[in-house]
Amino acid sequence: MKSTLDTLTGRLRMKQLQLLIALDEHQSLHQAAAAMAMTQSAASKSLQELEGMLEAPLFERSRRGMRPNAFGHCVIRHARQLVADLSAMCEEVAGIRAGSGGRVAVGVIMGAVPDVLVPALEQLRQAHPDLALEIIEDTSLRLLGQLDDGHLDLVLGRSLVSDEPGKYRYHPLGDEQVSVVVGHAHPAPRARTMDFADLAGYRWITYTGHMPMHALLQRELDHAGVSFPANAISTSSALITVAMLQRDAGLVSLLPASVAALFVRQKMLRILPVHLQSRQQTFGIVTRRGGALSASARQLVAILKAQAGKAAEV
């Protein structure tokens, strides 16, 4: 192991790591070489040198192209992290030289936006008014992919959706509560309690199949003995959901409770008193194990943890 590390330390070139990433994306030596502005023979020689250093083949060659094997998947994942970390270092150095506050990129699930991320970012911006922020809202699984590639510094989501949750650090923050919602003028009775059977006459806005709330609605309807709606309107956008609910009194949907509360306060939505039987899913701070956070990203993590501690005391 030490011999391999010494060899890599002395001979590994960043161009070889970038070639690996290009091969993973194009699955063709010819196309990867073109993307790297290299000749095909030079790319082939560079790959052979890297495989020799690691004493293992990294790709399976076939008529369909080059596909990474188990060794290749491992090395490519770390290559992406190394290239991303180097890029982040260059950006941070440039920010320091320019006198700006640097940059933090955060991925977040929908339910963590209003009451968790927004207050934390407000506090961070007060401390660093020149800090550049990038915020991406998506499902945990998709955000973890961007975290792996180095596009995100941290994710507010769930690490257990990954096939390899052990490669992340995870700090729980809270539960993502979910509410059943309708438009503010919806004619649904203002009863103390309701169940899913009471909503049989209304049309559902559901979420696309890869989103956790699609599976949540499926479970709840199964518990209630109600069939999943065949004529549902499917979307991945909370904004589309809210806009349609507000305009059409015949629609009903699910939203994270924190998001729903924003629109209830604006008298755009109503939350129906429907009890969900499914256990609410916990979310938290997810970072790459072994990855180094910038000072600003570390401060954001500290703010998020402090917020969660105060909320637990209430």
UniProtKB/TrEMBL annotation:
One of its GO terms (molecular function) is DNA binding. Pfam families: HTH_1, LysR_substrate. Residues 12-69 form the HTH lysR-type domain. Keywords: DNA-binding, Transcription, Transcription regulation. GO terms for cellular component: cytosol. Gene3D superfamilies: 3.40.190.290, Winged helix-like DNA-binding domain superfamily/Winged helix DNA-binding domain. PANTHER family: HTH-TYPE TRANSCRIPTIONAL REGULATOR YBHD (PTHR30419), NITROGEN ASSIMILATION TRANSCRIPTIONAL ACTIVATOR-RELATED (PTHR30419:SF8). Belongs to the LysR transcriptional regulatory family. This is LysR family transcriptional regulator. It comes from Cupriavidus oxalaticus.
